[in-house]
UniProtKB/TrEMBL annotation:
UniProt protein name: APC family permease
Listed InterPro entries: AA-permease/SLC12A_dom, APC_superfamily
Membrane topology field: Multi-pass membrane protein
UniProt xrefs under Pfam families: AA_permease
Amino acid sequence: MSTASSPTEITTSAAPASQAAATPAAEPGSAAGPAQLRRTLKLRHLVFIGLAYMAPLAVFDMFGIVSDVTDGHVPLAYLVVIVAVLFTAFSYSRMVRFFPIAGSAYTYAKEAINPHIGFLVGWAATLDYLLLPMINAILSAIYMGAVFPDVPFWVWVLLTVGICTVMNLIGVKLAASMNIILVGIQLVVAILFVVLTIVNITNGANGSGLSVQPFISSDLQLAAISAGAAVLALSFLGFDAVSTLAEEAERPERDIPRAIFIIIGVAGAFFVTVTYVMQVLFPDVSELGDIVGASPEIAKYIGGAAFQAIFVGGYMMAVLGCGITQQMSAARLLYAMGRDGALPKRLFGRINPRTGVPVVNVLIVAAIALTALFVDLDRAASMINFGAFIAFTFVNLSVIFVFFRFLKRRGPGAWLGFVIVPGIGVVINVWLWLSLDTVSMVIGGIWLALGAAYLLITTRGFRAPAPDLTGPINIGMYE
């Protein structure tokens, strides 16, 4: 079998339905078949795409909130998230060898467990796409408010959403070269931040000194660490984005697993390092004037108003760049779901014939983004993580189902790699999922219930096949 890492390990009678989809793509316009995705991405491309999607400055987003929740143990909370993500990454590396096709968590659950379950996993993950522009609007208002405190919060929200919406309506796309510039600026700003913070620590500013307290202390509380880790999972949204590029990678079975682990290793080391020096300098963020906007406050403390302006300026470039692409992706996701019949085609499956833009969908995403006027940052992050933890949990479960449904060789190594390790991943992700706040669980539960009701209706009580979400999950994000 072409989708299996080891052909002799898979039963031929229970071969995954998507086997044909994993065959090499035909050249566009060839007699062999319709145009398909081309395998042009090497390992370095996959790594950069994953890191760019995660955005390096995301490390500053939740520092103040999580420091307050964990009582000064943000680096430790990050280590917990890294462990959880590594278990899930291992499962992604397993699944991409069996299903080297686009779709990620949705495809894995659909093929390994059940198509209806797969639809609900994809539906839950869709919540992330729809809410990310809202997160950008909140962050924009927080950071700009630190520099211009007299300007109301709602002004920055409206400006951010308005700019992103206008840019999408006129059909502007950020080229890959622009993303490289934005990521480069973020890295420079982050490095300057770390250097200035270390200088302040060396000089004994705020009575600081290097210590292990951000990782371990006498007042450590497990519940607080898990709650902080549940919020920080937002920083790692995107490590799995490269799995959606399986049909565009030159060697997906080899390079995508490697890229996933490299991305987690690089990003994890970066996140822990940055938050460690920040936490050492400010063990108690309540000393700052604004806990939610702690990072720009620290930037002003370590480098004065001039560096704060540089820090916020660099961050705003990243926020606007991410906001435009995220709103574009969410609108295209809704369009693809409408085009393929997963959502009402008359509303969601239409594009403007002049601009080629799904105008209604862009406006719908903008309306959702405007909820930033009423939602605080930690709750918004928790709502996004609701879908992420569901997706991560079912990726791990999919590996277990592959073991019992398709694997013929079931020696000790197979039990370890296909049952025990992903089983631990399931437990960790469910634990973090249950650590989300109550309001986020209620809103996420309502969203999931809507998806279940829609599935029940469209499949006539699960008697018909589930709507196909392959299109919206792989909508050419990097075209």
